[in-house]
Amino acid sequence: PVHQRVMRTARQPVSIGETYDFMFTPPAPGRYLLQMRAGGDAALRARAHHSRAGYYERSGQFDFVEGEFERAAQIARDAHAYSVLALVLYNHAAFYTSVPDFRRCATILDSVDNVVERYGIRRFWMPARCLRAQATACAGDLATAATILSSIDDLYLEGREASFRAWTRAIVSLHSGDYDTVLSVLDPENVGVTTSAASEMGIHHATQGADALAWKADLDAARNVADQGFTGLERRRSDAYCHGWLAMVAMRVEADAAIAAQARDAIEYARARAMRILDGWSAAIAQLHSVHPLANAYSRACDAEWARLRGEGAGEAAVVAAHEFDAISMPYFATYFRWRAAEAALAADDRRTGVPLLEQARGVARLHGFAGLDAAITTVARTYQLRIGPGKTTVDGDVPLSVRELEVLRLMADGKSNPEIADILSISRSTAAAHVSNVLRKLEVTTRAEAASDAVRRGLV
């Protein structure tokens, strides 16, 4: 088997005196590739390109990643090494969750599914399900992510697979605002295995747990869990995806702690912890050859939480962070920072800035089902006695657009006529016209152009 041949090779030094294990963090990846070519083993050559892709990804050399994965996949196809092909395709798809490009991730996962079904390589089926659910959730489609997860709910899993499923469930639950479920699914007793703090999965578990605890305002526990994640980072060379997410969450915890603190010592303690987090993240970024969009978004997120902690420029910094997450199609975090920006503006008695931000945040939260964020936004609206939302009746009694009306609104924003809307949605023209009328009425506008403009402003399209 290929695995056994790889393990034997791992015990043999290659030409520069290193071992095969170093392929995962190679100082000179080209030399490993030459060694694999000399061996003449196609499966090992595919793995060599696969490992080079991983090295380039972790070091921030993204321009080289795609080519290495494609070479690895082609070698594996030509050699009929379908298990290796499934591995390469899976990790290629995973790469696009850290760029991120969730559509591209889904497309490559289709290829993984095809290999799994055609050649019976079932061990990649569950990880591919989890990765698809993660990508779908991060792109904002929580309902579809939950449906994907339901297909693996009844599977008995152990080890890394059990941890992976727990992490995926935690992502969907966190975005849905179900923080008790996040903590429950990450509990080692429920996972069925203790996840090493120094593993990538352990760091992700710590990140999700700390975030859920922060939402529950249990900041001491959130700090302890975040610290476990940072301890794991110290024990392994991790990528910016792991580190940046943890840094962003940990900075949120310290900002919350500083704002809630009464004593000056507690505020200074939070500030000192935040500075250590920022220093660690800055050091991680400095090791990258280039800063990719997600890492940049994490940096802007940390800046926004630092500004909130200090009480200086919090609104402006949060808007920048929201725009960075908008640019990479991660609506949950974009909505979180837009909420923070609105909160800061309203606290400064700047309703002209705060109200549109809050309306946009609420529109996106309700559109995607971000219930926890929706509740937080509603709390701000109540605090400042604002009437927001399509109906503008009361803070809580808005008249929401139905799912079908949201579909019609998006088509209206695309300039579609009533007959075109009817054809696209497979409904009658009279039904389409009725939906358009309802949308105009609920948005309190008179023209389609006004509806489209209002929808864009609110983040509904």
Structure at a glance:
This protein is mainly alpha-helical. 73% of the residues lie in helices and 0% in strands.
How would you sum up this structure, described in words?
The protein has about 450 residues and is mainly alpha-helical. It is about 75% helix and about 0% strand. It is built from 24 helices and no strands. It is globular. The N terminus is likely disordered.
Give the helix/strand layout.
Layout: H1 2-10, H2 29-39, H3 42-58, H4 65-78, H5 82-95, H6 102-119, H7 125-138, H8 142-150, H9 159-176, H10 179-186, H11 188-191, H12 200-215, H13 219-235, H14 240-260, H15 264-286, H16 293-310, H17 314-327, H18 331-347, H19 351-368, H20 371-383, H21 403-413, H22 418-425, H23 429-443, H24 448-458
Give short descriptive properties of this protein.
disordered N terminus, mainly alpha, 24 helices
